[in-house]
Specification:
By secondary structure, the protein is of the alpha/beta class. The chain has a single domain (about 50-200, about 215-275), classed as 3-Layer(aba) Sandwich (Rossmann fold), CATH 3.40.50.150. The protein is about 30% helix and about 25% strand. The chain has nine helices and eleven strands. It has helices at about 40-45, 60-75, 95-100, 110-120, 155-165, 185-195, 215-225, 245-250, 260-265, and strands spanning about 5-10, 20-25, 30-35, 80-85, 105-110, 125, 140-145, 165-180, 210, 225-235, 270-275. A hairpin with a 5-residue loop joins strand 2 and strand 3. The longest helix has 17 residues, at about 60-75. It starts with 6 loop residues before the first strand and ends with a strand. The relative contact order is 0.14.
Length: about 280
């Protein structure tokens, strides 16, 4: 991200992902997966039955309905209507919410089963080809969203620079991903090191997350890509089911579920950025 070489290894992947490590650049603080997964490996993570549990009536709404409604309300503070594109849309719930709000909404999803199901279920256009391969004109979108997507790309800075070309002048992007140095992540990393159990640091998602961000490294990346940060809010994802020692260790983290605490210290970062 910054062109520097030296990095510090922080943790190794678990089970079948043990060949990967999470590293942090000593120069700029950017966290990344080392070695970088190949494009073929990245694509392989999301094929087959990926998203299968969401391809049922009501399943996506149950899992993501409240979060995506919050995302919609967030972007409506900056852009009220126009043409929108959701990259990595899964089954298409978010563009369907934008469509209900008055947008000419579309999606891109590389899992063909999810794209097909979403088109049939929500009635929104979902393509399986990359941006620019479907005949889109440059500077044609008022809003482009990538919710929990950018951290999965091979090179997020270059990806953002490419996506920027398809935004109208002054257009907006909604980008969300977790903060690898959030209080939750820092707390779980501490206990994983004390107990020498890497699996406790559940906020570390390598290699599925090729990159892990903090608020400062994200802001630097957005600026390099030609964007200004228009808004940032935080939220806290519901905790995954846990048992045993993991359940006990997570007891103090319940404080993060209090709305005012989540807004200040939640793990999930929700950026609205504007094309310069």
């Amino acid at each position: 991200m910054c062109g520097a070489g030296p990095a510090r290894l922080l943790a190794r992947g678990r089970t079948d992902h043990s060949k990967y490590s999470l590293a942090r650049c000593r120069a700029c603080g950017q966290h990344f997966c080392a070695p970088t997964p190949t494009l073929a490996e990245i694509a392989g993570f999301y094929q087959g039955d990926y998203h299968a549990e969401l391809r049922a009536p009501g399943a996506t709404e149950k899992e993501f309905g409240a979060k995506f409604a919050r995302y919609r309300d967030s972007v409506l503070q900056f852009v009220k209507s126009g043409r929108s594109l959701d990259i990595g849309t899964a089954t298409g719930l978010f563009p369907s919410l934008l469509k209900q709000a008055g947008f000419e909404a579309e999606g891109i999803e590389f899992n063909p089963e999810s794209a097909r199901w979403g088109q049939q279920h929500y009635g929104v256009t979902i393509r399986t080809c990359a941006l620019g391969k479907g005949g889109e004109a440059r500077e044609s979108y008022d809003l482009i969203s990538m919710t929990d997507v950018l951290e999965h790309t091979e090179h997020p800075l270059r990806f953002l620079q490419g996506v920027r070309d398809y935004l109208k002048p002054g257009g907006f992007m909604l980008i969300t991903f977790p903060d690898i140095t959030s209080p939750e992540s820092t707390y779980l990393r501490f206990w994983s090191r004390v107990l020498q159990r890497d699996w406790i640091w559940s906020c570390c998602h390598i290699p599925l997350h090729v990159w892990e961000f903090t608020a400062p490294t994200a802001r630097v990346m957005f600026h390099k890509a030609g964007f200004d940060v228009a808004g940032l809010r935080r939220s806290q994802e519901p905790p995954a089911d846990a048992s045993g020692i993991s359940s006990l260790l997570r007891l103090p983290l319940r404080l993060l579920n209090i709305p005012i605490v989540a807004r200040l210290a939640g793990t999930q970062m929700e950026f609205v950025i504007r094309k310069r």
